[in-house]
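Incident log, structure service

09:12 report received: a user says their structure output differs between two submissions of the same chain.
09:20 pulled the input from the user's history:
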Amino acid sequence: MPLSSPFRYTTPPPPDAATGRTAEVYAQLSDDFGIARPPTFVVLSSAPELMAASWALMRESLVAGAGGRAEKELAALGVSQANRCPFCVDAHTMLLHATGDHALAETVARGGTPADAEHARVLAWGRATRTPGARELGPYPFPAAHAPAFIGTALSFHFINRIVSALLTENLLPGNIQRFRAVRSLAGRSFSRTVRRRPAPGAGTTLLDTADPGPGWALGTSVGPAYAALRSAALQGAGLLDEADRLLVQDVVGRWDGTHPPLAWDALPDRSRPGARLALLAALAPYRITDEDVSAWRGPEHSDHCLVHLVAYGAFAAVDRIESALPVRRVRETS
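09:34 re-ran on a clean worker, output below:
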């Protein structure tokens, strides 16, 4: 793998050779997201079912869902800040530039608070979704009818942040040049035409193999089956752990309060239980996964497909904990 590669630990299949569902995902990414081969999804292509479901949830919530794109980008940025994912923070800052609100983009890039009170509340809500029971989670800082799209966006990026932190480098652009204001602005403007239009909902769900309508807060929307498909695909990674390790992951994540674990993390097993260690790191501190952690688990029997699934299993364990603690209402109750 060349030094400039953004990928850690895996060698994804070449996008040019993609067929079937993977090729369809790339086509939708190009049309609806404006980036044909973002590393965020290329890194999942070793497991096409995860790649398709992850894109479907992001598409149906952030891209095609109800509500303003700038506001949903703010929610996603808040999630990414809370999860300490600089790659995704930089990406959403550039996408805020793409919406045309350059002052807002630069305010958050500097760590400031948006001048608009509603924008500030959405950003704070996104950050607060990491912490079960946080007071900023209610009431919604957006119309109740838009909740499926905003909640779907937040949960999508709680998953994506963890995949990115575990399996990609921090460099969104070579040399981290996106840290320069002129680069952020210029890159954002190049996506403006795509970002400012809203494609019709539903295309992402055509990539899925599920009839599950999803959780109650998203019933009747295309966000619901996309979330259900991601949950189903991610939970397949449980088969890479024995029962004792699965129970450990479930217990630790189930008691998690949203904080970032300390360096002396008593609940984290050592490398004699490498699968459980990787899954727990992916869930709660993916930025702390090391070469040694991956090497301790990975052997000839574990392909890139397996590693992506194990990381996804841990990532979704955290998403599930977050989703279960959100003060959500069924769509029908908000109409």
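09:41 both user submissions now match this output. Likely a transient worker issue. Closing.
09:42 reviewer note: The first helix runs from residue 20 to 33. Confidence is low (pLDDT under 50) at residues 330-335.
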